[in-house]
Amino acid sequence: MTRVALGLPEMRRSAASPSVEGRPRTDELIDRFGRVARDLRVSITERCSLRCTYCMPAEGLPVIPRPELLGAGEIARLVGIGARMLGIREVRFTGGEPLTRGDLVEIVARSRAAAPEVPLAMTTNGIGLDRRATALRDAGLGRVNVSLDTVDRAHFTSLTRRDRLPAVIAGIDAALDAGLGPVKLNAVLMRETLDDASELLAFAVARGLRLRFIEQMPLDADGEWARTTMVTADELLLRLSERFRLEPIGREDPSAPAEEWLVDGGPATVGVIASVTRDFCEACDRTRITAEGTVRSCLFGDDETDLRGMLRGGADDHEIADRWRAAMWGKRAGHGIDDASFVRPERSMGAIGG
């Protein structure tokens, strides 16, 4: 293995194919624990127009030179391989902030052509979406998840280090108008915005948005996360119950990360992704491609398998698919945050892709 610098603590990238000893003969992305990855997350950039404290340092992440990023055609080729050969059933583009890429519409269009039957989604902070929502829909994007932690403008500015709340709301409204739905909101649970949670849920219900709160994970660039000070799902539900009547629904799908509650009898729901206190690792069905073209089988595993070199080195689709399968075979059992041996990932969330 070689060590590859990103201007952050270095990651481990493997150019050699991982061991597949004991792997059953199947085309799917199966791992040693019998889980099958069908949900592909593709990070397309490390750049972002916000500086959320739980994701990025104040100065932003070091810039990845453009030649080291996957191009639109390379992204589409991997999406096509995943859909045709590996059983991928959904693709979501992430970052950084995908809207910072000038060729985003091309990425979506080429990916749609490569995988015409697979739903394409995007996670975004919404800034600039008002100008591109229609074009993205026409290119083949089906829906968006918008990251929004509070509708209190002062708290939003403090948390993101940018006064851009009106731009985010404009992006949400544009996504609704363009039919990029269901539009979901992702809100990371933070101590400083816990008091805003009920107002955010009211905002979501009024606009027909599907809100999901996410427990903060040890993926912040500043390394300040602590298990003892994070806001837990139980604490959030207690706070929301002071204003809303919540009835548990459970999970729509066993591999879905969010547990759902009916709000005031419905039809609105609220979800909670309790990644730390109620982990769902045993049902995880995700595989990730980083912006530089490596397979990352687990959000918390630093071992990455290089596919970009194969894309640019003349490998055919079957060879790339085999390397991808091998990478997923070695997926770890779980994140192990509560284990004494837990070591937080070297990359932050912004560098990995959500």
Which labels suit this protein?
354 residues; single chain; two-stranded antiparallel ribbon; 10 helices; TIM Barrel; 14-stranded mixed sheet; alpha/beta; globular; disordered N terminus; 28% helix
In short:
This protein has 354 residues and is an alpha/beta fold. The chain has 10 helices and 16 strands.
Written as H for each helix and E for each strand, in order along the chain, the element string is EEEEEHEHEHEHHEHEHEEEEEEHHH
Which of globular, elongated, flat, extended, rod-shaped describes the shape?
globular
What is the rounded Rg? Answer: 19 Å
CATH class categorisation: Alpha Beta
What is the helix content? 25-40%
- Report the span from N to C terminus: 25 Å
Strand proportion, as a percent range, falls in 15-25%
The CATH topology annotation reads as TIM Barrel
Number of helices: 10
Number of strands: 16
Mean pLDDT: 89
Structural class comes to alpha/beta
Largest sheet: 14 strands, mixed
Report strand order across the widest sheet: 1-2-16-15-14-5-6-7-8-9-10-13-12-11
Which residues form runs of ≥5 with pLDDT under 50?
A: 1-12
* CATH architecture level-2 label: Alpha-Beta Barrel
**What's the CATH superfamily, by name?**
Aldolase class I
| Assembly context of the chains | single chain
